[in-house]
Amino acid sequence: MDNQRIILWVLFAGLAFLTWSKWQADNLPPPGSETLPLPVAEENRPAVDLPAIDGDSGETPAVAPAVEVPAVATGAKPASTIKVETDLLELEISTTGGALVSAQLKQYPKSKDAPDVPVQILRNTTDDTYVLGSGLVDGSQSGPTHLATLAAAKKTYTLAEGSDTLEVPLSWTDGNGISVEKIYRFRRGRYNIDLDYRIRNNSQADWRSLSYLQIRKTHNPPERSMFNVDSYSYNGPVVYDGEKYEKIDPNDLQEEPLDMQVPNGWIAAIEHHFLSAVVPPAGETYSYDARYEKGIYTVRASGPAIAVPVGAEATLSAQLFIGPKLQRQLEETAEGLELTVDYGLLAILAQPLFWLLELVHGFVGNWGWSIILVTFLIKAAFYKLTEASGRSMAKMRKLQPRLKALQERYKDDRQALSQHMMDLYKREKVNPAAGCLPMLIQIPFFIAFYWVLLESVEMRQAPFALWISDLSSRDPYFVLPLLMGVAMFVQQKLNPAPPDPVQAKVMTILPIMFTGFFAFFPSGLVLYWLTNSVLSVAQQWNINRKMHAD
């Protein structure tokens, strides 16, 4: 039994170490992948190779295999910007291509110490680019691309009180009868944005074009640090092909560029708690590609080429998402978009845990108390199992004097000692391995809870009580880890000590080791483990009391 307990504790520490290793692997750049200087402004022309079209066939061409469309020139100051404000967002739209070049989240402060400084997702400066661009390009390399000049009726748009929708239209014309209206549609309480193109062909010939959406971002993950919770999570581009969610290492794109055909999917750039995504219309095959050049990655979806006959109109639609990783809004925006809340391999446990946490939070209104109550519920769900284990541990505790006597009697004969110990367990109907099962059960729940508290934006800067002002970061005064260490020590004293002196010393040191280890974990996770340990102490004390009374 004692050897199994030691192995399980070591396994538990090993799993925690693997969590740390996974974080390092996700964030540690390969040798020689240092960020390169930003590129200079690219040539102001979209290069797209549309397939040749028979002017008399009337057929819609297939998706172009490679759409080489540069993004808004890095750091280039647009001719003008349109300011847009909703209840959740403050944005800037460049009249150059109608690209989204700035986005601030009004309800999410950058830090607790700066509550009036909102998180900024999109930006376009000389040393940091993060832009959502889109456009249409025709066979003559023109059209309302992201480099074309678009016109807007106003410089400022604000979602009015009592209104649920705000439309921001931009217009373009080629002077020969082709006119395009690019419309952003914002909704109250939502971070997803509708994007429509309305095309009118009053020219003398059919007009053929290709639509595209792209995200262009400087790859600059936060510096790895145990004190910087934002550096724990993956930071970079991701793609969903309708079935599989995949992270893309920008450095890998230099050797193996992304090139795939996707009928139902999306592309996104994610960071801890926040993301931007472009979602092409479902059911239409788009060509997804990505590249990484001079420290900036570009992920792009280029749609099927369309033909607008003379005198006709056409509409193209897509969706954007700019904001926090709110799982309900992500699910409602696109299939699979909630996978950007990366719970890892134990998502099958983490997602129900978050659902339960959210449900309880709806009643108590405090995430800290929600964690405590959910821990009670988990403990109650496994009560019978842990009670059986506790009884076995209590029986083992009662057998300690007799086990010590056997050790003294057969200290020079390990085989005889083992045989007599097994006989004693059999006579007293004690299963030495029964105490191991609860620990095996708690390991996956612990890791799943870790990812829930780390990845769920709802926990970001969520206060609990007193000095705990952010459940997603460590306890600044290490009070919770110390209390947890004390609870683990008491719990250990209630259980039988290993007969072997060396093992007994190792078990005594474990609470100290875990106190130091947990000191840098999110305080919400420590609160969970502290609550679990206190409940385990209460349960084991009650079982021991009853066993001694019998």
SSE diagram, text form:
Blueprint: H1 2-27, E1 47-48, E2 67-68, E3 81-85, E4 89-94, E5 100-111, E6 114-120, E7 123-124, E8 129-138, E9 151-152, E10 156-158, E11 165-173, E12 178-187, E13 192-201, E14 207-218, E15 236-240, E16 245-247, H2 250-253, E17 258-262, E18 266-271, E19 274-279, E20 286-293, E21 296-302, E22 306-308, E23 313-324, H3 327-333, H4 347-364, H5 367-381, H6 383-409, H7 414-427, H8 437-455, H9 479-494, H10 501-518, H11 523-549
Parallel strand pairs: 3-10
Antiparallel strand pairs: 1-2, 3-4, 4-5, 5-6, 7-8, 8-14, 9-11, 11-12, 12-13, 13-23, 14-21, 14-22, 15-16, 15-18, 17-20, 18-19, 19-23, 20-21
Brief summary of the model shown:
The protein has 550 residues and is α+β, with helices and mostly antiparallel strands. It has eleven helices and 23 strands. A hairpin with a 2-residue loop joins strand 20 and strand 21.
| Major sheet | 9 strands, antiparallel
Strand content: 25-35%
CATH architecture descriptor text of the largest domain: Distorted Sandwich
Average residue-wise pLDDT: 78
Low-pLDDT regions? 1-11, 17-78
Number of strands: 23
Q: Kindly provide the name of the CATH class of the largest domain.
A: Mainly Beta
Number of domains as seen in the coordinates: 2
Amino-to-carboxy terminus distance? 24 Å
- The geometry reads as elongated
Count of helix runs: 11
> Main sheet: which strands, in order across?
9-11-12-13-23-19-18-15-16
